[in-house]
Structure formats: C-alpha cells, structure tokens
Specification:
By secondary structure, the chain is of the alpha+beta class. It has 12 helices and 10 strands. The strands form 2 sheets. Strands 1-2-9-4-7-10 form a 6-stranded antiparallel sheet, with helices on both faces. A 4-stranded antiparallel sheet has the order 3-8-5-6. The two termini are 26 Å apart.
Length: 301
C-alpha cells in the first residue's frame, strides 16, 4: 500500500537525520543549516535546545517535519507539540514562536512556500488558499512530499510543478478551505506584481509603477493581493527583502552589507523587520547559521 511506502520513506529519513555526520558533529550546539534556494522556496534544518524563536509572522506557508525531539510552539492561542515524523503546517501571517519541548533538544526541517505557488491548484479546484486548522498533522504522505523537496537541490521544472501541486492538494485535503466567491480574481495581475517586486527589491517601488505593470489601480491591486495572498504589496516586498538579506547573512556577509543589498535603509531598519518577521535578531541568526550553512547541498542530503 502507498501509505506503507510513505511511512517507510519517512522513517528512513528520520533515521538518516539523526545519524548524519552533521548531526553527530553538532549534537551539543544549536544551529541553523540553510539549504540552497529551490525555485523561490527557502529551506532550513534547525537544532535547538530551549527556546528557538520569539513570536513572529511569515507571509509564506511554513511547512516542516519534526525530525528528532519534541517540537513545541504557541499558535492561535494554544501550546502545540509535535513528535518526530509529524508535519507542521503554519498559515501565512499567523503569529507563532518555537523551541524544544524537552531537555534533549529538537531537530526539524522547515520550508517556506510563497502562497502564489499554490494559486494554480486552488484556481483549478475553485478553492481559497488552504487553511489547516490543526498545525500538527500526522500524514506520512505529506511528510514524504516535504522530505522529498528537502532532498533536492536541482529539480526539473515539470517535477517541481508536480511536487508543489501534490503538496497543495494535500493541504487542501486537510483544510477547511471554502469555495472561491464569485467575481473575477486578478491572479495574472497579482502574479505580475509579485514578479516585479522580486525584480526590484533594492530600490523604492511606487504604487504608480505597480499600476502600470498590472493595469489595476492601487486600491484594487491591494484588495486583490490580500484576497489571493493574504498580505499587502508592501509587506510582500519587505519579506522578499528579508529573504535576500537572510540568505546573504547565512553565507557570511556582513549584516550592514546584507541590509544594503536587501534594500533596507540601514542596519537598524533591517534589525526591526528581521526580529518582527523571523523571531530573532540578525546577529543571532548569523551566529546560529555560521559555518553550518551549506550552499552545495540541502539538509540531510
């Protein structure tokens, strides 16, 4: 049965994570391993003792697998716990923290998927973006899909599309996503705005430029952005800047230089947004990532 296949694949991945050379060499230290970007998806493996992150929000889906230890976090007013093999599903813009639930520490893998990657699947089904009520899900198939994404650095476009579609479909199966309301949704225009913002992170972008790119006035674009992606154009831009700055810090770039390259006015400007959106300061992230960040292979490969 397929379920058995998924369970066996997840069990093998969990065993590999615990026994990998990286894990053995760093067993006593907290760290974050940043994998190479996968078609716009950020991926990390993290190990923590005690508290890992202060309360913060992403504008992406945060999807992960608890690899070892007990993962605990506060989400939607409740304390949550995830044992090894379970899937973590955090919806965009939901406040949460994170850390280890026992003195043994915690190892988990997490990926951050932009909501716009799910739009083709939700459009085909006539559904809104998936919202999974329980942030801790026992689903070997979904865990296998996520671990497969962690295990790939280079992936053919067709395979990548299939993987994203399967992940989105699994989330829709778990969610209470409702049918899309009647009326035109400006998906192509919003996606053009996303592309334009990604291409212009290092400078100020005006509303009039987005109007020219999309053909929508700024108020209509803002409404469509929120309805489709759950965020505003400006917050989308700031979060993409943070992704760029974080990637540079992870490979050893000076924090002030990373702030400039990311489009922030100065280091203080980066610090404010970094802590609010990622739950730690750039300095702490740099210390945790440090020499453990790898650009040539993903976590667990």
């Amino acid at each position: 049965m397929q379920v058995y296949s998924d369970e066996k694949a997840v069990a093998n991945a969990l065993a590999g994570a615990v026994e990998a050379p990286l894990e053995r060499s760093c067993a006593a230290s907290d760290r974050i391993v940043v994998a190479p970007d996968l078609a716009g998806i950020e991926r990390i493996e993290a190990r923590f003792h005690g508290k890992g992150f202060e309360p913060h929000r992403h504008d992406t889906y945060a999807l992960g697998v608890t690899m070892a230890g007990i993962q605990t976090f506060r989400y939607r007013g409740e304390e949550r716990f995830s044992p090894p093999g379970n899937v973590i599903v955090l919806h965009p813009d939901e406040l949460h923290d994170g850390g280890a639930g026992t003195d043994d520490g915690l190892t988990y893998r997490m990926m951050y998927i932009p909501p716009e990657l799910f739009l083709p699947v939700t459009a085909e089904r006539g559904r809104t973006l998936p919202f999974v009520a329980s942030p801790v899900v026992e689903d070997p198939r979904l865990a296998r899909l996520l671990l497969e994404a962690f295990g790939n650095d280079t992936i053919e476009p067709l395979k990548f599309d299939e993987l994203v579609e399967e992940i989105a479909s699994a989330l829709l199966d778990h969610s209470g996503a409702v049918q899309m309301r009647s009326g035109r949704l400006a998906r192509p225009e919003v996606l053009r705005a996303c592309d334009f913002l990604r291409e212009n992170l290092s400078r100020q972008v005006s509303s009039s430029e987005l109007e020219d790119v999309t053909g929508l006035d700024r108020f209509a674009l803002s409404r469509q952005f929120r309805q489709l992606l759950g965020t505003s154009p400006h917050r989308y831009l700031v979060m993409r800047r943070l992704e760029r700055a974080k990637a540079l810090i992870a490979i050893g770039e000076n924090i002030a230089e990373a702030a400039f390259a990311g489009g922030f006015a100065d280091q203080a400007h980066l610090n404010r947004h970094f802590k609010k959106s990622l739950g730690m300061t750039p300095g702490r992230f740099a210390a945790l990532a440090g020499r453990h960040s790898r650009r040539d292979q993903p976590p667990g490969s």
